[in-house]
């Protein structure tokens, strides 16, 4: 439940306590709802989250077994539904998607075995809540099975790396079978077949517990402390789309969302839902967070599911000593420019969303972005750009001195 305060001064004082909330609220959505008149909030919400089939996004009721777990374990639980227009020749293709955001469970100084075990136990009831809610495809956050030690330069965090079929995959396979659920598990991978190198990898587990395949992160950030190339380099799996029992999905890991061509190619390969497991902090990206993913969903006529870890992770040590404040706020964008409200800014959470995949084709037809794109022009320019002798196409005013 969100916290509320009696006056602005109390709100501001609480916000300075750095608990991760937004002036004492779980989210911007709740802050606005509680402080605006209902008719003002309705209009502001329309502008911020759009309309789906001409209406505000609908909430859906979840079973008591799911909500009871949320109450018992204190995680945020929200559920929404994206509709599509009714068609004559196609039945609705409704898929229920779940996104999990979570903080770590023990200090980063605790024994590594204990840290991983504690994270497993922390996400267990959230996964059970997703399963009880009938989720078909579940995605966890980037490197969910460990603290984000890759933002330090301390190589001890390599010990968390595991094979594709390692401990984290085995832990999740039982849930996939139990709940008939596809699970996307972003891990720190150690490739035992290629010199034990490390990758940032998403493992796609099928609803029968089988491993469908993997995708390795395409774009690696090198921004100040956020220099992940200390641990791993760019992936080598291209832009795979995984055809599952519930739809065609792809994983655009974290930093890849900043690269529009990365999002484009997943769409060209036929993705209907993009999952974006992320670990990002407020001072760096929070202003971008509500924008980029919605842009990708609109431009590529697919759903875009954004998951960010939450909470503060403190890394004391001889190499680096720093705090990372992750802001959660996981949400889903649709091809019609509508989106869900965000999960909590400072608490663990599960976002459950029904989405009719027919909306993807309907918006391809409506806007015609694939038809009106000029791929041959883009390809020609990119081919020239890659050559050392490339010269930009700039026409200079002859009267300039």
TrEMBL record:
Belongs to the carbon-nitrogen hydrolase superfamily. BUP family. Keywords: Hydrolase. Pathway: Amino-acid biosynthesis; beta-alanine biosynthesis. It catalyses: 3-(carbamoylamino)propanoate + H2O + 2 H(+) = beta-alanine + NH4(+) + CO2; 3-(carbamoylamino)-2-methylpropanoate + H2O + 2 H(+) = (R)-3-amino-2-methylpropanoate + NH4(+) + CO2. The lineage of its organism: Eukaryota, Viridiplantae, Streptophyta, Embryophyta, Tracheophyta. One of its GO terms (biological process) is beta-alanine biosynthetic process via 3-ureidopropionate. One of its GO terms (molecular function) is beta-ureidopropionase activity. It comes from Pisum sativum. The keyword Hydrolase applies. PANTHER family: BETA-UREIDOPROPIONASE (PTHR43674:SF2), NITRILASE C965.09-RELATED (PTHR43674). Its EC number is 3.5.1.6. SUPFAM superfamilies: Carbon-nitrogen hydrolase. PROSITE patterns: CN_HYDROLASE. Gene3D superfamilies: Carbon-nitrogen hydrolase. Pfam families: CN_hydrolase. This is Beta-ureidopropionase. Residues 95-357 form the CN hydrolase domain.
């Amino acid at each position: 439940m969100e916290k509320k305060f009696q006056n602005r001064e109390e709100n501001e004082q609480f916000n300075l306590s750095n608990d991760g909330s937004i002036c004492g609220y779980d989210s911007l959505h709740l802050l606005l709802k509680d402080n605006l008149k209902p008719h003002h909030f309705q209009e502001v919400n329309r502008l911020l989250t759009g309309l789906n089939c001409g209406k505000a996004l609908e909430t859906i009721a979840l079973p008591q077994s799911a909500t009871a777990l949320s109450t018992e374990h204190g995680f945020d639980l929200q559920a929404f539904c994206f509709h599509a227009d009714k068609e004559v020749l196609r039945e609705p293709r409704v898929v229920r998607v779940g996104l999990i955001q979570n903080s770590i469970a023990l200090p980063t100084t605790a024994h590594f075995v204990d840290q991983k075990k504690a994270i497993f136990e922390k996400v267990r009831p959230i996964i059970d809540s997703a399963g009880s809610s009938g989720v078909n495809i579940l995605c966890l956050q980037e490197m969910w099975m460990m603290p984000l030690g890759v933002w330090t330069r301390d190589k001890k965090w390599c010990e968390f790396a595991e094979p594709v079929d390692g401990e984290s995959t085995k832990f999740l396979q039982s849930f996939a079978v139990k709940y008939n659920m596809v699970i996307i598990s972003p891990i720190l991978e150690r490739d035992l077949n290629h010199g034990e190198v490390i990758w940032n990898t998403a493992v796609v587990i099928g609803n029968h517990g089988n491993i469908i395949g993997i995708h390795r992160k395409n774009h690696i950030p090198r921004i100040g402390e956020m220099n992940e190339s200390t641990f791993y380099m760019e992936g080598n799996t291209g832009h795979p789309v995984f055809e599952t029992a519930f739809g065609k999905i792809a994983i655009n890991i974290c930093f890849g969302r900043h690269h529009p061509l990365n999002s484009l190619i997943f769409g060209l390969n036929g993705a209907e839902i993009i999952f974006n497991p992320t670990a990002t902090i407020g001072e760096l990206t929070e202003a971008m967070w509500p924008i980029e993913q919605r842009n990708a969903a609109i431009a590529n006529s697919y759903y875009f599911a954004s998951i960010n870890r939450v909470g503060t992770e403190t890394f004391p040590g001889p190499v680096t000593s720093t705090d990372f404040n992750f802001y959660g706020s996981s949400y889903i964008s649709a091809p019609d420019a509508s989106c869900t409200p965000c999960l909590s800014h400072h608490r663990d959470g599960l976002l459950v969303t029904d989405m009719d995949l027919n909306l993807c084709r309907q918006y391809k037809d409506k806007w015609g972005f694939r038809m009106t794109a000029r791929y041959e022009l883009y390809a020609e320019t990119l081919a020239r750009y890659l050559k050392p002798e490339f010269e930009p196409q700039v026409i200079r005013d002859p009267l300039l001195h």
